[in-house]
Design a protein that fits this description.
Layout (H helix, E strand, L loop, with lengths): L6 H5 L2 H7 L4 H4 L11 E4 L2 E5 L6 H9 L5 H8 L12 E5 L5 E3 L2 E7 L3 E3 L5 E3 L5 E2 L4 E4 L4 E5 L5 E4 L3 E11 L5 E9 L1 E5 L9 E5 L3 E5 L3 E7 L2 E8 L1 E6 L7 E5 L2 E6 L2 E2 L3 E2 L12 E2 L4 E4 L8 E7 L7 E7 L3 E4 L5 E10 L9 E7 L8 E3 L2 E3 L3 E6 L5 E9 L7 E8 L3 E5 L4 E13 L2 E7 L3 E5 L15 E5 L7 E7 L7 E7 L3 E5 L4 E10 L12 E5 L12 E2 L2 E2 L5
Parallel strand pairs: 13-15, 24-30, 32-39
Antiparallel strand pairs: 1-2, 2-3, 4-12, 5-8, 5-10, 6-7, 6-9, 9-12, 10-11, 11-14, 12-13, 14-17, 15-16, 16-19, 17-18, 18-21, 19-20, 21-22, 21-23, 25-28, 26-27, 26-29, 29-30, 31-33, 33-36, 34-35, 34-37, 37-38, 37-39, 40-43, 41-42, 41-44, 44-45, 46-47
Length: 566
């Protein structure tokens, strides 16, 4: 028979049922419309049945509790002292704990990876969304798998990676569907969000080889670790006991508390570590590799991090454990996610969670910056970056500050992977570049590259060469302590026909005067930190023929060496 919801149930507040449950049902229903004989409604902690013509307590007990002898219990519950015929339509309270049990089920509502199962009949396979599991099923997850199951009363059982769990009892009461659930944890961890079982007299237990955790509605975790069984309560209360003890010794853990149960006994109650603290700058992720960092805690021996699609962390996409307080995750598409981070104490107890909404916007990915880097010693400012395969244009910004509020250059639609600008004053500057791609015919602006900071320093510049009065030609240029130099002299402007290519420790050069002709000269500097500047602007010098004496010395006049055009 199906549970029949009648207008009568809607008219009676729940509080009346709980406060009047111990008095005669005649009083409860005296002023209510008569219900259909033979129907029943759920009135926790009882089921209320409306008698048919000819019903007796023993007949009702046999029909609904499968034991005729229970008529005496029904008699006491309803203040009826004998087993005679009951008037048609009489409301009879039947305690929920007397109802027989029938099979229930668990349904996979979220999963990652390839969790596997072994049914009670020995059949095996991989689970999928929507898979229905029955009593006796054993579920296992590897390092990349995670799943969440829902029970008919909306309770949730989440099994993280590297765990093995058996649904050792999966039942409900007949007629009212009051849950009767036992989960056996064989390896790893299980987290349960249990709907309230107080009113319907339901039961939910997590068992291990050492401990039993029973609840009436709460959010808690049970894990197997090296020292025993870890119990962690996030909401509500959990009664834990040692399964090996001859005399039952029970301890109630309340919200924010945990303990370890070992073969030696029930460990003391400890406070779970508080939620970790994380800077809000991690809430927007602009690189394909999501990175998080929480404030380090001296009490934390490690951290557990989960990425999920929902705030309740039911549909978990990835999870991992870390010793350090920095975490990385790869392989996610742009979108909105939730991150849950818990600190793990030195006992192995996992603390209270921090849950934050996170947005990943990493595409189109920015190009790699090429130049400038660190320093610039050039007469012009040349920007360059790599080409992005999906780019239709690029957005370049150049500023005096790292926040890019004091912009000097803002070019939002550059088609090339380079840009040249006038040299600014000496000082520190910042630049970045972003990719703009086409998405469904619309321009999509990606995140900027990492900010590049560089200093504009004095330009290395050549002074006009000194031809002197003899056969030497001298060059000099401004320099800074510790710099080294490369000077080149060529007979062509492209510096393919080098006359001289020389490295120097000083900012000067003296060479024998070359033959008459046109020469091109440039120099570049290397700073002590290894920075190599661009070549200076090319200087052009034309050396004219000169009259010389027998020893090769230039013949002088009052105005200097005498040229052949004199």
């Amino acid at each position: 028979m199906r549970l029949s919801a009648t207008p009568l149930l809607r008219q009676i507040p729940f509080c009346l049922f709980s406060s009047l449950a111990l008095v005669s049902p005649a009083y409860v229903f005296a002023n209510q419309p008569a219900a259909t004989p033979g129907s029943f409604i759920n009135t926790p902690p009882d089921m209320t049945y409306f008698a048919l013509q000819g019903d007796t307590l023993s007949a009702i007990a046999k029909r609904y509790t499968e034991k005729t002898s229970n008529w005496q219990i029904l008699g006491k519950r309803n203040n009826i002292g004998n087993d005679r015929t009951i008037p048609i339509g009489t409301a009879i309270l039947i305690p929920l704990e007397l109802l027989p049990e029938e099979a229930s089920e668990a349904k996979v509502i979220a999963m990652t990876g390839n969790p596997a199962y072994k049914a009670a009949d020995g059949t095996t396979g991989n689970l999928a969304l929507g898979s229905v599991l029955k009593e006796g099923a054993q579920i296992s997850t590897d390092k990349n798998a995670f799943l969440t199951m829902a029970l008919p009363d909306e309770s949730r059982i989440s099994i993280p990676s590297n765990s093995n769990v058996s649904l050792s009892k999966l039942r409900k009461t007949k007629y009212t569907a009051s849950p009767r659930t036992e989960v056996t944890l064989l390896q790893g961890k299980v987290e349960s969000r249990v709907s309230s079982l107080v009113s319907n007299k339901g039961r939910f237990e997590v068992r291990t080889n050492l401990a039993v955790a029973g609840v009436r509605g709460t959010n808690f975790r049970v894990g197997v670790n090296e020292d025993g069984i870890a119990n962690e309560v996030l909401e509500g209360g959990v009664a834990v006991s040692n399964a090996l003890a001859k005399v039952k010794d029970e301890l109630v853990l309340t919200s924010g508390k945990g303990n370890i149960i070992s073969a030696a006994g029930i460990g003391k109650v400890v406070d779970l570590l508080p939620p970790p603290l994380m800077n809000d700058r991690y809430l927007l992720q602009e690189r394909p590799t999501m990175q998080f960092q929480v404030e380090a805690s001296p009490d934390a021996a490690g951290y557990r991090v989960q990425i999920a699609q929902d705030k309740e962390i039911i549909n978990v996409l990835a999870e991992n454990r870390y010793k350090d307080n920095r975490f990385k995750f790869d392989g996610f598409a742009d979108g909105n996610y939730f991150v849950r981070i818990t600190a793990i104490d030195k006992l192995g107890l996992e603390g209270l969670p921090m849950v934050k909404a996170v947005t990943l916007k990493a595409r189109p990915e920015p190009p790699f910056t090429v130049q400038p880097k660190n320093k610039v010693r050039a007469e012009r400012l040349d920007f360059a970056w790599t080409e992005a395969s999906n780019a239709v244009s690029y957005h370049l910004q150049f500023a005096r500050d790292a926040a890019f509020k004091d912009l000097l250059i803002d070019k939002p639609d550059l088609k090339e992977v380079q840009f040249s600008a006038d040299r600014p004053k000496d000082g520190e500057y910042y630049w970045r570049v972003a990719t703009i791609a086409s998405n469904n015919g619309k321009a999509e602006h990606g995140p900027y590259s990492d900010v590049q900071k560089f200093a504009v320093l004095p330009v290395t510049s050549l002074a006009p060469p000194d031809e002197g009065n003899g056969n030497l030609l001298s060059f000099s240029w401004a320099s800074e302590p510790g710099q080294k130099f490369l000077i080149q002299i060529s007979t062509d402007a492209g510096f393919k026909k080098l006359y001289l290519d020389k490295e120097l420790d000083k900012a000067e050069l003296k060479i024998n005067r070359p033959e008459a002709g046109t020469y091109f000269i440039r120099v570049r500097s290397t700073d002590p930190d290894g920075y190599v500047s661009a070549f200076t602007s090319t200087q052009k010098i034309t050396l004219l023929p000169r009259w010389t004496s027998g020893d090769g010395t230039a013949i002088q006049s009052g105005s200097g060496p005498v040229g052949t055009n004199y």
